[in-house]
Amino acid sequence: MAKFPLGKVPAFEGHDGFLLTESTAIASYVAQSGPKADQLLGRDVKSQALIKQWTSFAEGEMFQNAFMPVAMAVMKFYPMNEAAFDRHVENLEKDVKALEKALEGGKKYLVGDEVTMADLMVVSFMYYITKYFADAEMRKTAPNLMAYFESFAAVPEYKKYFGEAEYCEKRLAKDAQKQ
């Protein structure tokens, strides 16, 4: 808590003692500091704007709608709020539809022709979507999104941090103990 008084995670400390919190800020800093900064953050102003749009979507929409129900029902980080749970799940379905539309035509990446920070942020939250919400019915309605996710889930670096991709048979219920 001395280094990060807000107690937030994720938190980052650079080799030089530089401290930073917030997912997008950390990811941007790391990307800008590395050899693939242009690829990850965009080579032109429009690509940069689209990447920021999708990273904001991931950190805002996807985090709230995919993680918060899990935090209530599985991790018990927060008390169960049934109205909030239902709202998040309903909004998650909209998020999945938005991603499906963005990936129409079998696009491999959200922005351009190579992996960007947008893909890395979105795919990180797909872990929760596939494990807890993307039952067979949802997967059937989002073939482009599932193909996109599966291509990233097959990469050794993904497996190193997230393990093998997991797909739920039944969507997470408000009372996860009864599933």
From TrEMBL:
GO biological process: translational elongation
Ranges where the GST C-terminal domain occurs: 44-176
UniProt feature coiled coil, ranges: 82-109
Keywords, alphabetical: Coiled coil
Pfam families in UniProt: GST_C_3 (PF14497), GST_N (PF02798)
Keyword Mitochondrion: no
Record PROSITE patterns: GST_CTER (PS50405), GST_NTER (PS50404)
Domain annotation GST N-terminal: ranges: 1-38
Gene Ontology CC, one term: nucleus
Keyword set includes Coiled coil: yes
Record-linked InterPro entries: EF-GSTs, Glutathione-S-Trfase_C-like, Glutathione-S-Trfase_C_sf, Glutathione_S-Trfase, Glutathione_S-Trfase_N, GST_C, Thioredoxin-like_sf
Cross-referenced PANTHER family: ELONGATION FACTOR 1-GAMMA, ELONGATION FACTOR EEF-1B GAMMA SUBUNIT, PUTATIVE (AFU_ORTHOLOGUE AFUA_1G17120)-RELATED
Protein name, entry field: Glutathione S-transferase
Top-level taxonomy: Eukaryota, Fungi, Dikarya, Ascomycota, Pezizomycotina
